[in-house]
Design brief:
There is one protein chain. The chain is of the alpha+beta class. The strands form 7 sheets. An 8-stranded antiparallel sheet has the order 9-8-14-5-6-13-10-11. Helix 3 (77-91) packs across helix 4, helix 10 runs antiparallel to helix 11 (236-251) and helix 21 (647-663) packs across helix 22 (665-672). It is globular.
């Protein structure tokens, strides 16, 4: 009975998750219809919206299978329903009261019971006079399985029960297996013969999944979306051929004359010795002719592909199209298309491979011969006039990162080769090299990472590895003045609150002021980083989505930029509305005016020119006057690109700069230093002062005053000697700006920012205390808890730091005996309120925390020190905490 309740709980939890997605889809569909013109709203539109109140997964529907992967068996309720119906019909001689297997299948799951007196299926009230009554699923499904396990595994198991089960269910051909001395082997043989796992899964796929012809008709809009072509007269033959290929995919055309189109979703590695040794006609195949095959232990990469149209033949030449291929620009797309010959085709039969001569549309096939042409995924086509399939989109991204290195430094070559093979074999893994030269492996979770490390050690690299603790990314910011936000903005308008640095040769004085951005604006800049990279030009490469966006008209791009501009203004106004209830309306208006001024002075974003930090140009009206020096004005390039500066203001700034460049020779040199200031800001925002992590949500104003070198203006030899002594002047300015930005952050109460998971937990009432104990040990913040109607489960929502998430699921299962489950989704960044440099100064603080020598490091300081140790940065710590003098005793001989 306990197992039945547990199974019901699992199905209920899965349906709860599915209902969340269905409700979100329902609301989005309703919103899209309500946003349409009123004349387009009809009853037919609302009939298309799916509003199914039933549970998605129900055993009586046939879309739930109960399996035991450890012993290799599984079943659906329909299998037991057929057997029970035959058994009941054999006991009932009346042909008018025959039991339908469908009726039994509906009664097997849920609070339904069987009354032997009336021979009917009844509810709980119908068994009032029957003792020890159990639900049908327990009585007719779980009890026989439990009896079989006891008869096989227990030393005093009754062999008669085993024979009874074999006789009742009509199992034959088990005489040899029953003589086995090993009870585990005997159990697996009987269970696999009685409830074969392959039959349960395959029958469920056939009954519940749509066939290829039906599936491709409604999936083609997502797989091969129609492209909007501006000039329809351009290459009409290519367009007609591409449309014909798309229609063949939509119809799943399996004729030989139809264009062949297939999609490779991943590359997987197979040991060469596992490949078939003989061909279709019995001939011996040399499997070591392909690249990398020079031994029994080498790996061969096969392409996992599905045929969407036409017929694929072994030995056929096809075109390999990347996701960026455009058939209308064939002359410029040579790097996105390759011609390859298919070496062999295999049907994947479990762990075995069966060679075939051809495969028709609608089938899945393994292809050998594409290892040199495909890294992870691609489109195969028999014609170049075919649009590539959309890139695969994963619901989550690899978040668990570790640094790996060989135990023996001499094996670094084998490790790099193994990482390249692993990157091709696993479509979800990411292999990168950090700025410090570490080989970083990113996986989806702890189980995925464990499997990747095992494959590296045993299959791909075959060397001993050293794996670091999980690498967690942090951010650095400053504490905001919560009491008076206007005062926070005035810090950038004054001239006294700044950090000043001077270059080594004394020619440039850099003054930096820093302010914290509103939280809404910071999140917006972080979420829009990819689009900002396309606008500002900060990213060298464009993704597939960006490329598709650039194919649209210029008007659509302008509208997109205009929408981003409105969102930025809305984020600033949202922050002002938050403070409107705490400060005067006049101050709120001043707050908006100051931000309007700031938005017209955006010079760059950072880091990498797309981050959530802003570099502002200096305010010329309020800049300090330095004798015989020129202020580096900067250029509000980003403000111009985003549309915060109108055309007249931009032309006025350009005319002023051009006039100054012609009248002042020093101004020409100052113009060349703009890139140095920009680079200094990018370096500082990419590596903060706390632990070299990127900065988060900060705005910098950099004022650089450049003066002429005294007495050396016309002396080229002296200026060259000075450059050799102090380095290039541009490099000195870059270093001064970087150091000044970091010093300004340290001066403004720096804080560490950590990533937070949104955690949804489902747990029964009796394990609430153990679950809260696990959350408390991992610094989680509980948001709410609510009881699910109709079940004994509690749903708890909490925020969990990313640093505390490793091993969380295992600890939760261990403390709750597997009764609790957790779902983690990356939510947001959150600043730690603790001061990492806290030292008690007042009498109350010293009384609570002790004096400065005995204060233990807080959480923020521990995290910072951990990151600094990993990166090899100096850490302030005491080597000896409590020292005592050693007593040396003389040894008497």
């Amino acid at each position: 009975m306990e197992a039945f309740i547990r199974l019901q709980r699992i199905v209920h939890e899965v349906n709860g998750i599915m209902s969340t997605y269905k409700s979100q889809k329902y609301l989005s569909d309703v919103d899209s219809l309500l946003a349409a013109p009123s004349g387009d709203l009809t009853d037919d539109n609302f009939e298309l919206i799916e509003d199914d109140e039933e549970d998605t997964f129900q055993p009586q529907k046939g879309n739930v299978a109960f399996v035991c992967a450890f012993d290799g068996w599984g079943f659906r309720t329909s299998k037991f329903a057929e057997f029970c119906a035959d058994k009941l019909n054999s006991k009932n001689p009346n042909p008018l009261h025959k039991v339908n297997p469908a009726t039994v299948n509906k009664a097997l799951w849920g609070p339904r019971y069987y009354n032997p007196k009336t021979m009917m299926f009844v509810g709980k009230k119908g068994i009032a006079g029957i003792s020890n009554a159990q639900p049908l699923f327990v009585q007719w499904v779980l009890e026989p399985i439990w009896q079989l396990y006891k008869a096989c595994l227990e030393p005093d198991g009754d062999i008669a029960i085993l024979q009874k089960v074999i006789r009742n269910f009509g199992l034959k051909g088990l005489e040899h297996e029953l003589k086995n001395k090993d009870p585990k082997s005997k159990l697996q043989a009987v269970m696999c013969h009685w409830l074969p796992l392959s039959d349960a899964i395959l029958s469920m796929v056939v009954n519940c999944m749509p066939d290829p012809i039906q599936a491709q008709s409604f999936r083609v809009s997502r797989l091969l979306p129609k492209r909007e072509v501006l000039d329809e007269g351009m290459k009409s033959e290519v367009l007609a051929e591409a449309e014909a290929a798309r229609k063949s995919v939509e119809a799943c055309d399996s004729r030989p004359e139809a264009p062949c189109v297939a999609f490779v979703s991943k590359m997987f590695a197979v040991p060469v010795k596992m490949l078939p040794q003989r061909g279709l006609h019995g001939e011996i195949i040399n499997n070591f002719t392909e690249d990398g095959g020079n031994g029994d232990s080498d790996e061969c990469f096969l392409a996992f592909a599905r045929i969407f149209s036409g017929v694929l033949y072994a030995g056929q030449k096809v075109y390999v199209l990347s996701a960026l291929y455009d058939p209308l620009k064939e002359e410029n797309m040579q790097k996105h298309v390759q011609e390859a010959e298919l070496h062999s085709l295999y049907l994947m039969m479990g762990q075995g491979l069966k060679p075939v001569a051809f495969v028709k549309a609608g089938n899945v096939v393994a292809i050998r011969g594409l290892g040199q042409h495909i890294l992870k995924s691609a489109t195969l086509s028999s014609t170049k006039s075919c649009w590539p399939f959309s890139s695969m989109v994963f619901q989550v991204s690899p978040t668990l990162k570790v640094a790996i290195e060989p135990s023996d430094p001499a094996d670094i070559g084998a490790l790099m080769k193994g990482l390249r093979l692993l990157n091709r074999a696993d479509p979800f893994v990411e292999v990168t090299v950090s700025g410090r030269g570490e080989h970083v492996l990113a996986a989806a979770g702890e189980v995925h990472l464990e499997r990747c490390i095992k494959d590296l050690k045993e299959r791909f690299a075959k060397v001993s590895l050293e794996v670091s603790p999980p690498l967690v990314s942090f951010r650095e910011t400053i504490e905001c003045e919560e009491s008076d936000p206007l005062e926070n903005l005035r810090l950038l308008t004054g001239t006294t609150d700044f950090v000043e640095k001077t270059t080594a040769n004394g020619r440039c004085v850099v003054r930096v002021q820093v302010m914290k951005l509103p939280t809404a604006l910071t999140k917006l800049l972080d979420e829009s980083s990819e689009f900002l990279g396309d606008i500002v030009g900060g990213k060298m490469g464009k993704t597939y989505n960006s490329l598709e966006a650039h194919k649209a008209s210029i008007t659509e791009d302008d509208n997109t930029i205009e929408s981003l501009k409105k969102r930025i203004i809305a984020a600033v106004e949202k922050d002002s509305l938050y403070w409107s209830s705490q400060i005067d309306k006049d101050l709120v208006e001043k707050y908006k005016v100051l931000w309007q001024n700031f938005l017209k002075r955006i010079w760059a974003f950072g880091p990498r020119q797309v981050g959530p930090n802003i570099l502002l140009t200096p305010d010329i009206k309020k800049a300090a006057n330095v004798d015989s020096s020129v202020l580096l004005r900067g250029s509000p390039y980003v403000s111009q690109r985003l549309g915060f500066l109108d055309v007249e203001e931009s032309q006025r700034i350009r005319k002023y700069e051009a006039s100054m460049a012609t009248t002042n020779g020093l101004y020409q040199e100052v113009e060349t230093l703009e890139s140095s200031v920009m680079s200094g800001f990018q370096l500082a925002s990419a590596a903060g002062p706390l632990c070299d992590e990127p900065m988060w949500g900060l705005a910098f104003v950099v004022e650089a005053y450049v003066s002429a070198s005294t007495g050396q203006i016309n002396d080229s030899s002296n200026s060259q000697q000075q450059a050799e002594q102090y380095g290039m002047f541009s490099g000195q300015v870059m270093t001064a700006v970087k150091d000044a930005c970091k010093a300004a952050v340290l001066q403004k109460k720096p804080r560490l920012v950590e990533g937070m998971y949104f955690c949804e937990l489902n747990t029964p009432t009796e394990y609430l205390g153990a679950m809260y104990a696990v959350l408390a040990r991992r610094r989680a913040r509980v948001l709410k808890e609510e009881m699910q109607e109709g079940s004994p489960l509690f749903t708890v929502h909490a925020y969990l730091p990313v640093t505390e998430s490793f091993g969380f699921a295992d600890e939760l299962r261990r403390w709750t005996s597997g009764a609790s489950s957790a779902l983690l989704v990356l939510s947001h960044w959150e600043a730690l309120p603790e001061d990492p440099f806290f030292v008690p100064k007042t009498e109350e603080e010293k009384e609570e925390f002790g004096d400065g020598a005995s204060v233990l490091p807080n959480t923020a300081r521990k995290l910072i020190d951990g990151v600094r140790r990993r990166k090899g940065l100096p850490v302030e710590e005491k080597v000896v905490q409590h020292a005592t003098k050693q007593r040396t005793l003389a040894r008497k001989v």
